[in-house]
Design goal:
- The structure holds two protein chains of two kinds.
- By secondary structure, chain A is an alpha/beta fold.
- Chain A has one domain (4-228): Rossmann fold (3-Layer(aba) Sandwich), CATH 3.40.50.
- Chain A is 34% helix and 24% strand.
- Chain A has helices at 27-38, 86-101, 134-139, 156-166, 185-199, 206-210, 212-218, 220-229; strands at 4-7, 16-20, 42-48, 57-59, 62-64, 67-72, 75-80, 107-115, 127-131, 146-147, 171-178.
- Chain A starts with a strand and ends in a 12-residue tail after the last helix.
- Residues 234-241 of chain A have low confidence and may be disordered.
- A four-stranded antiparallel beta sheet of chain B has the order 3-4-9-8, with no helix packed on it. In chain B, strands 5-6-7 form a three-stranded antiparallel beta sheet, with no helix packed on it.
- In chain B, a hairpin with a 3-residue loop joins β5 and β6.
- Residues 1-15 of chain B have low confidence and may be disordered.
- Chain B is built from no helices and nine strands.
- The chains are: A alpha/beta, B mainly beta.
- The A-B interface holds A 29-30, 33, 57-59, 64, 81, 120, 180-183, 211-224 and B 1-5, 19, 21-22, 24, 35, 37, 39-40, 61, 63-64, 68, 90-93, 95.
Chain lengths: 241, 111
């Protein structure tokens, strides 16, 4: 069963790709949503597959796909609005990397949260970056985050970086300290600030901060479903999208 | 984002049903540690009742111009001491620590 990527607008070459899927603190989804809104990105496609969960979005009575492609300002943002089980998620990732590899991207970035037990005590969560090659690292050298110097990375970010390397796509995994089971707009704001220099334009996060509580309430259901979809501790691969 | 979000508009005000907040519970060194996500809630609009078996959290908030009522009954995995339960609210996240009920032996007089 295949993953189908349908574009409804002419493609752009040498883009930056941002991939956001529901995970810890819904950081990627909140950040992508805010970026789409503030940078004025438009919907240019959808991704669908029979292996995706039988869920659709509804807006004004019209059924909508739950994995969408947005574009503008030399950027592609792919956002999944429902939590995907591990197998469909991994297959979506490889299909997206196959698709973007043909566009010769400058960088493919995955945004995610790393659950931090003491997040409530942390005013400014720390952003950590891992790249898959020197080319990616030098392109994003002005990123506002700490480089992971040494160690092991497991889970979805590791899968993303490894698959990007296999396809010759420069890639980065950006992870921010976040709540595990509560939507975390504060962590999403930090991750957006960290990628500003790479994107080359300013992102106004004031609205994200002002609407933080509304976002937390709106995303309650998605967060609950995401927690259910996450594998329990000790199971591999970990899902940190 | 947003379509999971259901809202019932009633008259002039936006009124939602009672919302069950997200919560997390773990057993720590001091007893049962619970966090509850209560966006928009202040201390004045929060009420916590504790018994040996459960903690009831009720709150009201104004989020995005709408009045939201939260209610959550959290059952304890073991009997707790309701007198020693402590709670702290930070940025709309409630943190409760419920120490276990102390079980001691009492001398029984023999008649």
């Amino acid at each position: 069963m295949s993953i189908e990527i349908v574009e409804t607008a002419p493609g752009i070459s040498n883009p930056i790709l941002i991939l956001a899927v529901p995970g810890a603190g819904l950081v990627g989804v909140i950040a992508a949503d805010h970026l789409i809104k503030t940078a004025g990105l438009s919907e240019v496609g959808k991704i669908d597959s029979p292996i995706f969960p039988p869920v659709i979005g509804v807006k004004d009575g019209i059924a909508m796909h739950t994995v969408k492609i947005y574009s503008g300002k030399g950027l592609y943002v792919i956002k999944a609005e429902v939590p995907l089980p591990i197998d469909p998620l991994l297959r979506l990732t490889t299909s997206v990397l196959d698709w973007i590899a043909r566009r010769r991207p400058k960088l493919a970035i995955v945004l995610g949260g790393v659950p931090e037990e003491n997040r409530i005590k942390i005013e400014k969560p720390q952003v950590m970056a891992v790249f898959n090659c020197e080319e990616a690292k030098s392109f994003a050298e002005n990123i506002r985050g700490d480089l992971m110097k040494e160690g092991f990375l497991s889970g979805y970010a590791a899968f993303f970086l490894r698959e990007a390397t296999r396809r010759g796509v420069p890639a980065a995994a950006l992870m921010v300290q976040s709540f595990a089971t509560y939507p975390d707009p504060g962590a999403a704001a930090e991750i957006l600030k960290s990628i500003e220099p790479v994107l080359g334009f300013d992102i106004d996060i004031s609205q994200l901060e002002a609407e933080s509580e509304t976002i937390r309430l709106k995303l309650k259901e998605l967060m609950a479903q995401t927690v259910q979809a996450m594998p329990k501790e000790g199971q591999a691969p970990m899902y940190i999208g | 984002m947003g379509w999971f979000y259901r809202e019932v508009r009633w008259g002039y005000f936006a009124v939602r049903d009672v919302v069950e907040p997200l919560s997390e519970m773990k057993i720590g060194r001091e007893g049962v540690e619970i966090t509850v996500d209560l966006p928009g809630v202040t201390r004045e609009n929060l009420m916590i009742n504790a018994s040996e078996d459960a903690i009831l959290v009720e709150a009201v908030s104004l989020v995005g111009g709408a009045r939201v009522k939260y209610k959550k009954l959290i059952k304890m995995p073991f009997p707790i001491d309701p007198e020693r339960v402590k709670a702290r609210l930070t940025h709309g996240i409630l943190h409760i620590v419920a120490p276990p009920k102390e079980v001691g032996f009492r001398r029984v007089p023999v008649e």
